[in-house]
Amino acid sequence: MSAGRLPLAITMGDACGIGPEIIAKLFRDGAADGCLVLGDAGVMRAAARLVGALQAVAVLESPQDLGGVPPRAIAVLPVRGLPEGLAQLPTGGVEARAGAAAARCIEQAVTLARSGAVAGIVTAPIHKEALAAAGIGYPGHTEMLQALAASGGTPAPVRMMLANDELRTVLVTIHQSLRSAVDAVTFEAVLETIRIAHAAAARWGQPRPRIAVAGLNPHAGEGGLFGDEEIRIIAPAVAAARAEGIDARGPFAPDTVFMRARHAPPAHPGEFDLVVAMTHDHGLIPVKYLGVEQGVNVTLGLPFVRTSPDHGTAFDIAGRGVADASSLAAAVRMARVLAGAAAPGLSAASPAP
Fold it and tell me: Are residues 7 and 151 in the same domain?
């Protein structure tokens, strides 16, 4: 770690999933310089053996100890209060102890980030059923981080963005049923999402991003023939954002706007820098289709940097040592840039010019 540079904290994720092994690969390949792992040292030792890495696991007492860790050694800051026997849990299935441990690691990461001890957080995948089995009352990372970051008991508005080299989407609604998500698409929610996306873009050097707003209904409602949410809600929110000086446009048909925004120069320069999508799958399917291995999930609106890979725990391949660490590596690179811990330029998910 460079002198004077705060470390990034990587949470261990679900111990029964691929999180520990892709973290071990990141350290093995030299892509985790300036990072420490919040979790269980035994789990990380097992992960190192799994991926065939002849690397040490260095147990830290504080983030400041990272400077003395040898290159490519896995630096682990043990998290207090983790369940016993995590390293002995079978991989590939839902375990309440793994869910409880994952949540505790996230709590510790937020504490360190809010105290200024780390530059940002990179979260390895967790499993929603494991969280529920452990009695954790959050459906996912985003909601948990929002609650933990709340100041004075009032959670700040946050939004989920998924990004890769070619496309960035910000979501109005996330982890809820489609039926309830439609009801959650309100004027206030759409306008707030546009504002959050606009403000966040300044962190990666785009003070005036071109924001495309996708519709909710087929063909963006076709003038009200297939639904009137575009007329009643989305278009007025876009107009309000434009009145604030934000370069927002739309609503556009959700089945074509992502192709227009895709930035793949020189043959296909994107028309837009960001797309605001109304629902989880509308926004995430296009990005994931372009390549899960380079996708990065960023939580916008938190008082600290948080990124993660854009895939889950992959229980079907966990414990085999074959999981691809590319998305986690991209998340680390993104976090470094957003935290100001690297030279400008988002190597993992560069914004469209």
Answer: yes
Instruction: Look at residue 18 in the predicted model and tell me its pLDDT.
Output: 97
The last residue of a domain, from among 290, 315, 341: 290
The structure's pTM equals 0.84
Which pLDDT band, with edges at 50, 70 and 90, does 52 fall under? confident
Give the Cα-Cα-Cα angle 84, 90, 96 (nearest 5 degrees).
55
Counting the structural domains of the chain, the total is 2
Check whether residue 191 and residue 109 sit in a common domain.
no
Do 37 and 142 fall into the same domain? yes
Q: Are 319 and 174 in contact (CB under 8 A)?
A: no
Query: What region, left, alpha or beta, does residue 265 occupy, with left being phi > 0 and alpha being psi -120 to 50 degrees?
Result: beta
Quick: pLDDT tens for 280-296.
999 999 998 887 677 89
pLDDT of residue 347: 35
